[in-house]
Amino acid sequence: MSETKILIADDDQFVREAVHKILEIFGHEVTAVSDGQEVIDAVDNTFSTIILDINMPGMDGFQTLEKLNELGYDIPVIFLTGAGSMDYAVQAINLGAYDFLTKPINDLEIFSIKIKRAIEKRMYVLMSKAFEENLQIEVERKTEDIRNKNILLDNYSHQLEETTLNMITTLQVALEEKDLYTAGHTKRVTNYSQMIGRALNLPDEDLQTLARACQIHDIGKLVIDVSCIQKPGPLTSEEWSNVKRHPEIGFAIVSPLKFLKKEAEIIKYHHERMDGTGYPESRSGKDLDILTKILIVADSYDAMTSKRSYKINKSMDEAINELIRCSGSQFDPEIVKHFIHVLKDPSERT
């Protein structure tokens, strides 16, 4: 089979056969038809060049070119025109034709050169398309590789975050378990906070943030001497000042971990009060977010209902009364209301 295929259309059988023979002599495979519709029926992506007569019955050369453009094969079209219709050839080129030839064909060298150039143009078009397709495939492959690597990085980052959080939580639990009076405090505070959060219909993302903050809210006690809280009786002012440092120290421990930025803020302010008399910054209720306010209530309730060396633990009803008494001053009234509701209704504690 010839290396190149050329499609020629001319309603003049003599011209058609003459051009056909010349092209075959040049070594091309030729398909010859007599009108525009036959061109549209015969054309496919394997042709290198199309030679069109302008004046053909039915679908003329211009109409045929428009149809070819719609097909999108990007095959160079050379118009074959009589000597008296050069203006037609110029118009055809303006419509997208590659070149034109006058008939009868007398100069075979020029004819051969124009055909070769058209074939080269076609080869360039095909190479460009192949390059674009290969480039697109490569871009898609690289994009997929990047996407997969990002997934792996996200998974690794998530695992690293979970490992870090678990390590901090384990340290805090270990600290609590050393003291009979504080054992289980973190777990209970987390459960209470989740009960309140669900009662308030918080989104899952906030519930997760709240749970993580609860799990490490007392981590600051790891680096200060809190043995004084185990002694019976009140703390001295110096001991109390030392204990009050733990929220800020906890913040300092956790804040470098960017994935725990929100949790670090909650840890820092979980001993503030609605009336602004808490610590470490004496923030008032308007400056505290809802997650911090929830932890304040849950942490205080567990402290009231848990046995301590320096006090007798309160019953649930006594602690509820204390929550009510301190609503507005220490605790957010709306949070207290929802917490009391779930405490009194076991079905709400899921």
Characteristic terms for this protein:
single chain, 350 residues, alpha/beta, Rossmann fold, Hypothetical protein af1432, five-stranded parallel β-sheet, 13 helices, 57% helix, rod-shaped
Regarding quaternary structure, what we see is single chain
- Within CATH, the superfamily of the largest domain carries the name Hypothetical protein af1432
Mean pLDDT: 87
Q: Please tell me what the overall shape is.
A: rod-shaped
Spatial strand order of the main sheet: 2-1-3-4-5
What is the topological layout?
Layout: E1 5-9, H1 13-25, E2 29-33, H2 36-42, E3 49-53, H3 61-71, E4 77-82, H4 86-94, E5 99-103, H5 108-177, H6 185-199, H7 204-215, H8 237-243, H9 246-254, H10 261-268, H11 290-305, H12 316-325, H13 333-344
Parallel strand pairs: 1-2, 1-3, 3-4, 4-5
Structure description:
The chain is α/β, with parallel strands linked by helices. It has two domains: 126 residues, Rossmann fold (3-Layer(aba) Sandwich), CATH 3.40.50; 171 residues, Hypothetical protein af1432 (Orthogonal Bundle). 57% of the residues lie in helices and 7% in strands. A five-stranded parallel beta sheet has the order 2-1-3-4-5, sandwiched between helices. α9 packs antiparallel against α10.
